[in-house]
Every structure is written in structure tokens, then in C-alpha cells.
């Protein structure tokens, strides 16, 4: 649960949530008509802030890379099973998530302290792993588990089903959290969320990956790209012919015992040492 969202921006109005259904609306001007509404303003930004505070990347088109917001920070308080955790993140330093309160016993989340400000923080990657563990029972050590492999369920993919982005096409179909979501992505993440065996979709994706690799090799073969590496068909055929001829000669020599001896009879060249006896 999210208790509140705030920002260092002076004009930002803190958003407080409560248990149950919350509806986010924007105020309209007193003299505005029904068609002159500002209801669409601000809700999309709140969704992006929630994603940002829950570990999303700061892409090139991110709201938090703009000059107007790059130096500002955003904060929120989350509550998991009665435990409240307040964090803060900024677009200027998105790799660090600062801990405002909570997590006294750390619970497997490595917490560091800045030397200059003495503020406590943890990496965004560790924060995502912690959220995935709390919300979806993913392991805290992602890298040392099966979820560290490619084409496996992830926290960011699964949380995007609960915080859908309209601009990304998250409402176009129930199984998609984005318009360009790949087949394996929605199959595995939804299977995990529904308690199904996501490894079945994982195995199918491995087959798709191998088929794609074979298709690329076929295209490279037809285009002649492999010729520069392993040679053309004519060059390989001549090399095979020479190798077969050499193998036949060796086989014939071994069968007829015609082995050339290059050793030297050292006994024939051995000289007896000259020994002088003193009387």
C-alpha cells in the first residue's frame, strides 16, 4: 500500500491515500464549464512518480530527465504487512534510493551511508529486489537464482500490471502491460502471478530463441557472410579432398609397415673413452 507521495517541488501538493478505493481528481477553475476541465492534468505524472519510486529506469524520454525536474526529488511511504518504509529518489542520482525511515533491521537489504550527508541509501537494483521479495515472493538474491537468467519473471514487469501506463499502451489488452510487450514476457509474468508453472512458457521461449538463431544462420549462409570466416564451398571442398588424400596415404603406409626411421644409431657412433693410468 502507498500511504503518501511528496516532492521537493514547492508547488507540489502532497497526495495522501487511504485504505479502499482512491480516486484522483484535479481541481477546476470556478468559472470553468463542464467542457473546460483539467481532470486529465497531473494523474499521468503521479503514475510516473509511483513507477519512478518503485525502481523504473530513467530513460531518455523520462519526465525526471527534464531540466525542470532534474534537481528535484520525490518521496513516498510504502507499507508492507504493517511495516512502513519511506524512501526518496531523484532524477539527478537515480541509482541511489534514500531511506527516510523504516527498515531498522535491514532485512537483507544492504544499506550504506553517504560520507558527506550521512544519509542512508541503497542501490536501485537492491530496492527492486526488496520490493519483488515483499510483493511477489521473489528471492532477495536475484543474481544467484533462476530469476537472474534471461526470459524470466521480474518485479518491474509484474508491478506494471498493477500500475498501468496509458501512454505505453497498458490498457490496450488485458494481458499486456505495454503495447510492444513480447509474447514470452506476458506469458511468464502472468503465469507467475496466477500461480501457474511459468517454466513451461520459459521452455517455449528457449525453443523460440534457438529457432531464431537457426534462421539467422540460414540467412548468413545464403548471404555469404560465413564465407569470410570458414571459407567458401569451393575452398572447403578442396581442403576436404587434400585431407582425404593425406589420410589415405597414411593409412596405406601403416598397413604396409612402410615407416621411415629417422632415428640415429647412437651405438655405432659411440666412442670408447680414453682412460690414462698413472703408474
How many angstroms does the end-to-end distance come to? 112 Å
Largest sheet: 7 strands, antiparallel
Name the shape in a single word.
Answer: elongated
Radius of gyration: 34 Å
Strand order of the biggest β-sheet: 2-1-3-4-5-7-6
Number of helices: 7
* CATH fold group of the largest domain: Rossmann fold
> Into which percentage range does the β-strand content fall?
5-15%
Q: Strand-and-helix sequence, N→C?
A: EEHEEEEEHHHHHH
Low-confidence stretches: none
Helix share, percent: 25-40%
Mean pLDDT: 83
Write the CATH homologous superfamily of the largest domain. P-loop containing nucleotide triphosphate hydrolases
Please give a structural write-up.
- Helices cover 34% and strands 13% of the residues.
- With 279 residues, the chain is an alpha+beta fold.
- The longest helix has 26 residues, at 198-223.
- It has a 7-stranded antiparallel sheet, with helices on one face.
- The protein folds into 2 domains: 1-25 and 40-145, P-loop containing nucleotide triphosphate hydrolases (Rossmann fold, 3-Layer(aba) Sandwich); 150-223, no CATH class.
- A hairpin with a 7-residue loop joins strand 1 (2-7) and strand 2.
- It contains 7 helices and 7 strands, in the order E-E-H-E-E-E-E-E-H-H-H-H-H-H.
- The mean pLDDT is 83.
- The protein has helices at 43-53, 124-136, 155-162, 183-193, 198-223, 227-230, 233-255, and strands at 2-7, 15-16, 73-80, 83-90, 96-101, 112-113, 120-123.
Amino acid at each position: 500500500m502507498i500511504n503518501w507521495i511528496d516532492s521537493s517541488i514547492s508547488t507540489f501538493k502532497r497526495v495522501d491515500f487511504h485504505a479502499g478505493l482512491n480516486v484522483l481528481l484535479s481541481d477546476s477553475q470556478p468559472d470553468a464549464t463542464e467542457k473546460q476541465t483539467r481532470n486529465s492534468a497531473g494523474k499521468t505524472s503521479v503514475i510516473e512518480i509511483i513507477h519512478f519510486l518503485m525502481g523504473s529506469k530513467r530513460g531518455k524520454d523520462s519526465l525526471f530527465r527534464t531540466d525542470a525536474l532534474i534537481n528535484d526529488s520525490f518521496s513516498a511511504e510504502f507499507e508492507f504487512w504493517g511495516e512502513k518504509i519511506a524512501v526518496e529518489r531523484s532524477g539527478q542520482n537515480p541509482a541511489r534510493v534514500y531511506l527516510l525511515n523504516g527498515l531498522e533491521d535491514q532485512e537483507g537489504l544492504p544499506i550504506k551511508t553517504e560520507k558527506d550527508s550521512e544519509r542512508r541509501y541503497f542501490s536501485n537494483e537492491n530496492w527492486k529486489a526488496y520490493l519483488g521479495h515483499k510483493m511477489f515472493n521473489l528471492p532477495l538474491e536475484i543474481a544467484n537464482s533462476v530469476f537472474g537468467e534471461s526470459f524470466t519473471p521480474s518485479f518491474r514487469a509484474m508491478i506494471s500490471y498493477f500500475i498501468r501506463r496509458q501512454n505505453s499502451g497498458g490498457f490496450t489488452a488485458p494481458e499486456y502491460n505495454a503495447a510492444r510487450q513480447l509474447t514470452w514476457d506476458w506469458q511468464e509474468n502472468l503465469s507467475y502471478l496466477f500461480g501457474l508453472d511459468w517454466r513451461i512458457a520459459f521452455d517455449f521461449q528457449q525453443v523460440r530463441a534457438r529457432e531464431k538463431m537457426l534462421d539467422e544462420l540460414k540467412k548468413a549462409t545464403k548471404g555469404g557472410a560465413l564465407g569470410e570466416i570458414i571459407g567458401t564451398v569451393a575452398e572447403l571442398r578442396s581442403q576436404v579432398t587434400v585431407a582425404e588424400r593425406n589420410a589415405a596415404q597414411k593409412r596405406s603406409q601403416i598397413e604396409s609397415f612402410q615407416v621411415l626411421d629417422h632415428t640415429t644409431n647412437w651405438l655405432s657412433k659411440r666412442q670408447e673413452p680414453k682412460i690414462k693410468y698413472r703408474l
